[in-house]
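We modelled the chain as a single entity of 222 amino acids. Its sequence is:
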Amino acid sequence: MLTLADELLLLALREEDGSALIGSAELDCGVAGALLAELALAERVRLVDGRVVAADRSPLGDPDLDGLLASITADGKPRKAEQWVSRTRRDQIRKRRLGRLVAIGVLEEREHKFLFFKHTTFPERDPRPEQELRARLRAVLDGAPADERSGALLAIVHACRLDRKAFPDVDGKVLRRRVKEITEEQWAGRAVAKVIASIHAAVMAATSAAVVASNAATMSSG
């Protein structure tokens, strides 16, 4: 069975060449949020007074999920969901999830070399899992009742700013309205959106500071 993190990656990769539709920061935050949402669906964690707490320490048999659950359990201090998303977002986890999809035959790993640079893409090998996933989500977007997994996944997809790219054939207004209806109570998705917003704000602040410093240096040299 694919996890929410695995399903997110299938939606985030172009079927034809395996390149990502969104940036690595958004995707890593999305994977982290999907792991957190998976633990919540499995009733291993829950949200209490806006903080994530462990509810059941029983492992699920997935190294990334069990690792996150162990961290939450051992932390000793209930933290906000966005703190766990920020702590968990690592490209190593994304690479492990992609490696898992390669190992079970869903994706294919291709390495590209240009001069001294290497770039890896993950085109589809077996299109059926994504086709089934898209059919399920499309039915929900078209008005079918949303099950818990679909609602959680769509919240993460929206938070990563992937929804318009993953479903370009759905009218924008219809998509926004339906996603809002489905994901309003999805706390993991909100956490992902907050972390992504903070990353973008930090990048903008750093860029602005660099521009100011450059202008000051130019004026002083002149």
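As a brief sanity check on the tokenised model: Confidence is low (pLDDT under 50) at residues 209-219. The first helix runs from residue 4 to 12.
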